[in-house]
Amino acid sequence: MNYYGTEEYKKEMDALEEQIFSKISFTEPDRVKELEDGYRIEYYYYADEEHCLPGHAPVDGEICRLFRNDEQIYEWKNTDGNSHMADIIHHANGRTYLVFDEDLYGYSVLDLTTRYCMHYIPEESKRKTIEEMVETFIWCDCFYDPKTNQMAVQGCYWASPDSLIVLDFSDPMKPVEAENWSDIHRIVRDTWKDAEENDIGVDIEFLSWKDGALLCRLCGGKTKTVRIDLAKRSAETEPE
Predict the structure, then answer these.
(1) What is the DSSP letter of 178?
(2) In whole angstroms, how far apart are CA 237 and each of 83, 197, 199?
(3) Mean pLDDT (whole number) for 4-27
(4) Alpha carbons 216 and 67: distance in angstroms, whole number
(5) Which of 122, 128, 161, 173 is the most exposed place for a label (fewest CB within 10 A)?
(6) Averaged pLDDT score across all residues of the chain
(7) pLDDT by residue (tens digit) across 114-148?
């Protein structure tokens, strides 16, 4: 289920508007991210230090403005405070998209031609109690393969090692729910669960797409390159 646009989401955003977003100054951006084709994003940040409890991080947020050359073409609000992801994707369908985040969880896709935006935040990660909440993958960077319409996403689960997920990106404007993201860490573990290779180290890093397969590097105790066959959900060591 998509949390974005629900009544609970609207209440949360109304509260953050008063606490955070209405207090942001646009004199100078706190940081700027330069993208290809003349696009750039300016980030304007605010943290509510005044009401921060001892030992806790302050509630914070960003207003993010997308420019093409010197023209602002889009704006969004990020409730996480430090937006991690903004990648331009040239899709096999001939269109160009911006993939970005508006929350710690989930992802959004902006069609850079029509300016229509798809927003997805997994509802299970926004539940109010620890017993009900389900951690979903936190997106930090993405890598699209036009030959297969698959997209690999670098990121992690909260307080866990770097890893990868893969999802079907054939229709960028249709959200792919978290339950349909392929966990590469799990595929590697399942492939080598009874072998010495099960010691895969700490982190999994994206390398490239090659002939429809995903190449990634396992880093830590044993560093090596592996090929992930997504159709078979299996992994094998790639010669260096």
Answers:
(1) G
(2) 34, 9, 13
(3) 96
(4) 33
(5) 128
(6) 91
(7) 999 999 999 999 988 888 999 999 999 999 999 99
- Residues 173 and 109 sit within 8 Å (Cβ to Cβ): yes
Positive or negative: CA dihedral 10, 12, 15, 17: negative
Q: Compute and round to an integer the Cα radius of gyration of the chain.
A: 19
Q: What is the pLDDT of residue 161?
A: 87
Q: CA torsion, points 19, 23, 24, 25, in degrees to nearest 10?
A: -170
- Tell me the pLDDT tens digit for each residue of 162-208: 999 999 999 999 999 999 999 998 888 888 765 455 555 579 999 99
Tokens representing 52? Answer: 């921060």
By three-state DSSP, how is residue 116 classified? Answer: coil
CA distance 33 to 67: 10
As a whole number of angstroms, the distance between CA 105 and CA 6 comes to 15
How many other CB atoms are there within 10 angstroms of residue 232's CB atom? Answer: 11
What pLDDT is recorded for position 198?
A: 54
Residue 9 DSSP code: H
Measured distance CA(74)–CA(88) in Å, rounded: 14
Residue 40's region, left for phi above 0, alpha for psi from -120 to 50, else beta, is: beta
Half-sphere exposure (Cβ direction) of 115: Cα atoms closer than 13 Å: 8
Tell me what pLDDT residue 41 has: 97
CA pair distance 70, 52, nearest whole angstrom:
37
Q: 224-239 pLDDT, tens per residue?
A: 788 898 888 888 887 7
Given a contact cutoff of 8 angstroms between Cβ atoms, the answer to whether 237 and 229 are in contact is: no
